[in-house]
Records
---
Amino acid sequence: MTEQKSKGKVLPFRQGAAFYMKRGAKQMEKNDLLAALCRYRQAYASDPSNADSCLAVAEILYQMQRFEESNRLLLLYVSMYEAVPECYFGIACNYFGMHEFDYAAESLETYLSLDPNGAFAYDAEDFLDVLDDDAELAAATGISSDEDFDTLTICTRARHLLDAGEPGIAVDLLREHLSEVPRAWRAWNLLSVAQYCAGDREGAKRTTDYVLSENPDDLSALCSRILLLCTGGQKEAAAELLDALPQDLAGAAPETLSSIAVLQMELSRFEAAQMTLRRLYLAAPYDTNVIHQMGYCARMLGDFDEAQRCYRRLLRLDPTDTVAKYYLASAKSAAEQPSGKAAYWSLSYRVPLPEMLRRLNHINRMFGLPQGELRIRWKTDESFRNLLNWVLTVPDDRVKRAILSFYYMMGDERALRSFLLRTDQGDALKREVLALLRRMGAKEPYMAYLESQWIQGRVSMLLLPEKLPPAYEQVLRLLMEHCFADGQQEAASYSVDLLRKYLAQFEDNHFPRISTNQEASFAAALDLLGGRLAGKEQDEQEICKRYKITQIRLRNALAKFEPFLEEY
């Protein structure tokens, strides 16, 4: 009699979304967010059209305060697949975390209109009540009683502009807000940073001096002064002022703690920076920059094991993160050969220049392959795809344009749509991506972050001339603030299309100059006409009141746009 071997349970090599969702749920029960995120990401990757896995990943990212990443995932889903009401509730939560309160309210109303008796209906109504009550909103956001809610939104948008390499536009946006809210100190401090990034160090110094003359103990302004001293060659004075900062930073905002930590590292105060970063980590344990700075600090102090732990954590947050992979390998190499040549580490979260050039050369060689072989590499080599996604973080539009064109050639609609939703990318490239999507035949409308606004529309509506004078940009901004915020997407589409037709009549983009009053009247006229084309008649007096203009100015503006109505 032959002995029978017991058959073990054989798992298939590839698992479906349901398998990973179940594993993720078990990790959530243990409150292990990183392990759960890993499983839910696997579920989402196996079937991106599955709403449950998309919502699961987005919810964890929200809990980790990675609001933009979570929002990009949800907006991408609703732009590509049939709308799921719960997505809009999640989008509202993310907008709130990003201080985009009007968009949060609009998303909540969309959720309630799609599912009035849904699982989150009560929460959505309660959420709307909070957004409509200044005292409740102040408590929910944790801002001081003398701050303006619009300041939070404007500062968020200004930071996006800085990340996208548009400091000049950020300066204009902040100045415009400060003309209306002159004692918004948060905006004044960010203005100083924006001026510095724009190369206007004298302006940054004047702004910093003004804030400190009004608030001598303002930590953000003191950080700006230290930075200006440091970059101005006065490192001893900068170090002296840095060391004189209060030791008790318990009440400091996370962005202030971040500024202090960066200055401490710039001035080689690594032990002090470690203490600051540990305090910051308690408030933001999943923030990429915080974790990288902790790894950087550990490396400079010779603690290679701690540095490796930091980058392993980043790779658990995002396994496709090639920057974290680079620094993890560098930390391992330094630990194994402490006397070897030290690799250059960047305080900013990017790979150093030699590594960047090596990667770009490798991609150039890959692009030289026959198209059939290149397509196979694209489909089968995950590391190659991750490297191409990394290229979109390189501050060179020519390089990014090449990658976006490659996505188009590969038919990667998802990657192009995702690019439109990034807040760290400029508008010019996004407009080119819109044209690529239309050429691909990707279904409209598209969702995008354009002109510091989250918008949805058709290509004809979004493809305005790339270099609009500031006055016409303000017309568009006013339209978006009123028309888009009210959820009138169809009317907004007609309004912007009318503006495009009006501007198209002028050769070489030589547009007539318009005054501040005309900016408002142009926006009002477009709002009114767009509503009419969408079948929504609006009262002229109400429009005038909304845009703070006279009826004479409205009628003058209407006369400029009404001739183009014949084309509809």
---
Amino acid sequence: MAKINILPAQVYNRIAAGEVIERPYSVVKELVENAIDAGATEIEIYVENGGTQLIRVVDNGSGIEREDLQSAFAPHATSKIKKAEDLENVLTLGFRGEAVASIASVSKMTIISRCENAKCYSLTSDGGKLGLITEAAGEKGTDVRVEALFFNAPVRLKFLKSEKGEEAEITNFVSRFILNRADIAFSYYVNGKRVLQSFGGGDEEAFVCVYGAAALRQCFKIDAEKHGIRIRGYIGNQNFSKPNKSYQSLFLNGRYIVNTTLSAAITNAYSSYLMKRQYPFYVLHIDLPGEAVDVNVHPNKADVRFANNQIVYGCVYSVISAILDGHTKALDYLVQEEKPAEEPTQKPVEKPVEKPVEKKKETKKQEEIFPQEEKKFGFATFTYEQALKELEQTSPAFAARKKDGDVPFKEVVKGYFPVSELKKETQEKRGAEKLHEQFPDLFFKKTSFGVEAPKAQETKQEDVFAENKRFLEEIDKKKKQNRIDIRTCRYAGKLFNTYLLYEREDEVFVIDQHAAHERLVYNRLKEKMENRKIVKQPMLVPYTIELNAFESEFIREQYDEIRAMGFDIDEPEEKHFRVSAVPTDLLGLDLYVFFNDILGQVSSFRSIKLEELLKDKLALSACKAAVKGGMDLTRQEIDALFEMMDGDMGMKCPHGRPVVVKLSRVELEKMFKRIV
């Protein structure tokens, strides 16, 4: 009996749907991308019950001809590419031909389409089973209806979010489509109510439609080109940040992506301006040659791979850091606002151009991967190909690694030789082991992260659960070892009115009185916060918060926890929240900072607890209330503090500093050279 089965279309389409169609937002994403690829200038999106009951996308694009209508439902059927070589330069949003077949296999789907100067036709699929093509009434373009999503995949339905949660995901993607294609008019309706609308009037109009005019005033508008890579859009100024990453949008060659190389370049450029738990705000469009990027690396095309990460990272980082740091180069990158004709235009004050300091030829810093652009008059321009060539010339390691995967040069007595040649020569004449003893860092292995020295011997693979169990046992053992019986300790004095000394057998414990008391006060405040009685105080002027769809859904999910803290919160208007009462013991709380801390948990799975949100505030209160270093404590106060520690010698202050340092008699005798 044969064991290998050839799966029917209905089965492998369902499997593909598991990768391509994760949730309702995936359906909206694929259908809107198809509409954009069809040349639509107006797109309407309708969603009901979080997308599970209905998702409808209507466009005025080129439409689908009658003879192609049935093929549109077939797997791997697409008009975007014809041959394998086309994958090397993909310019459309869709190209695999999986989306329609995958959606149709897990829903009841109908496509109504009409091409210009042709009749309108309709075709329906019920879980992948096609009906008959019939004439219908419709305007030029395509009308796609997806109903009863996942009706034949009940397991997938169980893992969906609430209706509001799925709507929030869809709203986020529609917002990014508006930001991405500012030349297209979008209308987005949820349960019959219009939520978003743009008119195709350009980038500024699209930005205001999604984020509002207030956010626009806090941003720099940029349009830069470097090494053949164009970077344009909006970035928040040095003081404009957000508590989470939901306000970050990256578009590469017209496609929304989430990419670590680009996000790291932007975040690192902002690093000196961001406070803890704050993230940059940006809407950036990056265009580079199609052959320099591979979009066929992720099931839903959410990520890409660059031919050279160094060039892309360097270009993005240098442009954004120049703007934030106020470098003279920023004048070439910023888009200047157009002033009314009647107002005289003022010339910008010219800053003296500093002469570049001449560097010695033999020194080459790591950041000098790219050629020096700054010149007396303006900047040199390089294409992507020229920048790549320059990188290979200035970094031979890059060129050789690309060729054979070896680190190319190593300094030896004879000069510089390729590692591959050295390996061959030494293995024949002296042997690899002998050379390795002489040059222990000579041989390298290539990994996905670059190069690294080989390990002396491979470690044995152990059961990960056994390793975790052993690690937890060690932590528990260490805690027990750090706790002592205080009755076995004898007070030995103090140093500088700050450090208390307690002796125990052959050990001495040096205790920081401020850190110890600070930790004890912090524990007491935290316990008090956990067991507090809630008394509310109504506010004369309610505090209002305007959030995006993702944050709004998160706040709705946390209503019970926020109200349990003592806050009265409601949503009088879509995505606008109102706090009308606060707990009396938190009357002086900065609500802006407090709710920013809550929204900072939006991507985590931890439950929101008041004592954790107010950790910094409690730590500050404990620090102020604790005895200070240099304060002369009485013997009675010292003994009371030591008793409160209850023998916990592994204690740390709320800021992470150690409370106790242990010294053994052996360590002291080594200091005085009594023993060696």
---
Amino acid sequence: MGNYLNPDNALYNKERNRRLYVDKSLLIPLIEDIALNDNHFICVAKPRRFGKSTDAYMLIAYYSKGCDSSLLFNELKIAHKADYKMHLNQDNVIYLDMQYFYDKKGNAFDMIDFLTKAVLRDILKEYGDVDYLDNTDLSTVLDDIYDQCHEQFIFIFDEWDCVLRDKDATKDEKEFFLKFMNALFKGKSYVKMAYMTGILPIKKYGNESAINMFKEISMLDSTPLEEFMGFTEDEVKQLCLRNNMDFNEMSAWYDGYHLSNDISIFSPRSIITSISDKKYGNYWSGTASFENLKSYISSNFDGLKDAIHRLLIGEKINVDTSTFSNDMATVQSKDDVLTLLIHLGYLAYDSKSKSAYIPNKEVTDSFISVVKEVKWPETMKLIERADKLLQATWNLDEETVAQVMEEVHESYVTSPLKYNNEEALSTTILMAYYTANDYYTIVRELPSGKGYCDIGLIPKDPTNPAMIIELKWNKSVDKAIDQINERNYPKAFEHYKDNLLLVGISYESDSRKKGYKQHICKIKKAC
């Protein structure tokens, strides 16, 4: 047993004994299946706070010869697998927290030198009788051990991409680091399996990955590890049930990363912190990743501001992820920023539509905080207008609501051709109610009564009124209110019948009409 060769299970033991531990042990047989039938080089890239290190600790505890972990796993799901004990603590494991070594030395050259010495010290103690060609070179030493002892190794590297994420690391440093990784892994018989975790997928040069032997699993394509990229809905429901927390509220704050048709994940750190604190809130502000968000949103790439605005009103934005080189230092376009924010967890990704979206209230809060800090003038006006609009709606002030709609239309719709149907009007409405997410869950096309109301606003605080917004383009605003009542849209808001506003908004585009007015609003309290 050593620090880096065949470490003990202390790190996982600490996680396993936490009060809010979630059993993710079935990741192990799935990883084994990938290694056996697909590729024994596996790189899992997911955001901070999504359990990367805990997964690494679990794999160490399960495979390492340096400990007996039966007491840690006997009560977990993996123990029901037929070959569970066949693999338990049977392998040579080399574990490296790459961030530790990088922080220790501050540059890739000294990091690799220090890392090599540290690992070799453990290996040479264990395999002192081997005849080494060069006992100062890590890959050569492992070659000699395999040739003479027929021993293989499982490599578990956490935060493997720390050098590539460092904006201050030079091109020479990054290339040196990647050459070291290639020399360690490519074509090596001593590798039984390599499992790496990071935030970014493997660095690309052109369209080619720098270490192309790895199967990559990321927030862009999580197959087949979707349910192991975070906490699933069922896992969070059980945690909420055991700890007397409201799952619906938890879901509004932290859900939204839809990795497949039937799997949506939550950030484990946010869930655990929320339950521990017994409150719901934003646990990303003030973190290093939050500073990254501020940095990239502040960049002046064409179209980025408009994309951020549209994301904040709940729209999905098409993004070309192929241009991103998986390097935080070479972000060169709006699409690169959006792709990076997907990997950082600030955006979720819909692989079918190839689009990005903001997943939940926690992330929305982070975006709004950053937008306020970077002080985009047009965004500050939008926020001020949105606050004014919401207050006017609550006060049944129809004139002010229509006026604000007019202002938002003029600011954010650049061509009449883009504003000629109810879908375009809906986008403007959501842009106008920019900050309503702080108070409401906003649902487009909400099923209710005999159809779907255009926009439903469900209050997070029951003291605020629920709202049904019906939109009409080139039709009377009275028809919007009539449709709400005729189709019984308030049926979905029965819990709020004593505190429900019916809001009709129309847009008239024919300026030849007498008394012409573009936006018209009518607000009524539900009877």
